[in-house]
Write a structure and sequence with these properties.
Helix content: 25-40%
CATH architecture of the largest domain: 3-Layer(aba) Sandwich
CATH superfamily of the largest domain: TPP-binding domain
Number of strands: 9
Oligomer: single chain
Structural class: alpha/beta
Strand order of the largest sheet: 3-2-1-7-8-9
Order of helices and strands: HEHHHHHEHEEEEHEHEEH
Bound molecules: 2'-O-acetyl adenosine-5-diphosphoribose, zinc ion
Largest sheet: 6 strands, parallel
Amino acid sequence: MAIEFPEALLARMRTAAKVGVLTGAGVSAESGLSTFRGPGGLWQNQDVMELATPQGFARDPQKVWAWYAWRREQALQARPNPGHAALARWEAALTARGGTFELITQNVDGLHQAAGSRNVTELHGSGWVLRCTGCGDERIDRTHPLPELPPRCAKCRSLLRPGVVWFGEMLPERAIISAQAAAETSELFLVAGTSGTVYPAASFVQIAARCGAVTVEVNLEPTPLSGKVDYSFRGKTGEWLPALLAAAERSDA
Ligand code: OAD
Ligand code: ZN
């Protein structure tokens, strides 16, 4: 795909020593995972309150776990796509020349790590973490199917829950701190494949803009963030991210 990117953007990509990226479900769409909003989105025919709140889990842990077990199965079958790969390659290249690349994701599927990204902040937790609602014990477990549903803690037999952040819950403090720091210090900040409707995630690119970063969005559709960034590109992250990176590398030569 030969796309002409603005020279000022490519120049910033070449020179920025600190790059921040926020990703959302759209980045995993080309790996076959459903997004939440929009046509075919998970929230079209599923109730957020039932499946993604502590109250929903307290009411019907079996139902919530059936849904997460299904999503874990989908994620186990999924492979990173060229969008994930481009971000991993960008991190490797920037790190090799002494820079810092901070990838902040709202996704819980682990596909960025599978693609080779290393400095990943999981803002909404991880679907692979099982956390005990009784003793707080936490472990990573990629087993599917789980031996019992809902799963129980081996130590205290209390219910386990997915290690994700539900609506109405606090984000992990360490994740907020690193995302905030990345937003404040990045010279370039990219948002990719997110509807920009969930906070605080959607605030980071706006903080980055206020702190002087050049800001970029890649999304199939316009979002509430589109008017707030310097450059907004319409299209698939699996095509645009590799193209953007290739263009910057070309102009590097
Ligand atoms: P959404 O489903 O809200 O938005 C996905 C975005 O990706 C949309 O703006 C699409 O236009 C875009 N998109 C879809 N396919 C794409 C592709 N191939 N290339 C580029 N863009 C594409 O997902 P998030 O923004 O991640 O939280 O949602 C944020 C949070 O809301 C999630 O972490 C989840 C959800 O409810 C919780 O469950 C707590
Ligand atoms: Zn326990």
